[in-house]
């Protein structure tokens, strides 16, 4: 077993232990590609998999609009009520932080192991919910930037 396989197995195990099906499944898919000699797909996945995943995520979020469960009145209240304005601001901040997290993970992919481990600790000891590496990366990017600013 080479180091790459061991790392992917470790990530998959950490994903399982941390109850993050997304991380476990992603590592399993990469292991499957590795064992079937389909590594030539790695560049395509690196360029397009995040985009494809985000499309499915946005589709999931937009289903209540498409199904009519969110009315025009509900939409309007998100712009004129204090909770609605807070929700819009939170969405802006979260997406900006996720972008920063993605950039950090692209520069330092080895941080993923720490984020998965942190997610496991958060789930096991603090009742957290593992929502994915981008938000953890966004928080890490914020903390790394703050640390750099404080130096």
Automatic annotation (TrEMBL):
This protein's GO CC annotations: plasma membrane
InterPro entries in alphabetical order: UPF0756_TM
Domain of life: Bacteria
KW ATP-binding (keyword) present: no
Entry membrane topology: Multi-pass membrane protein
Keywords tagged on the record: Cell membrane, Membrane, Transmembrane, Transmembrane helix
Spans traversing the lipid bilayer: 6-33, 54-72, 78-99, 134-150
UniProt subcellular location: Cell membrane
One Pfam short name: DUF441
Family: Belongs to the UPF0756 family.
Name used for this protein in its record: UPF0756 membrane protein MOHU_10620
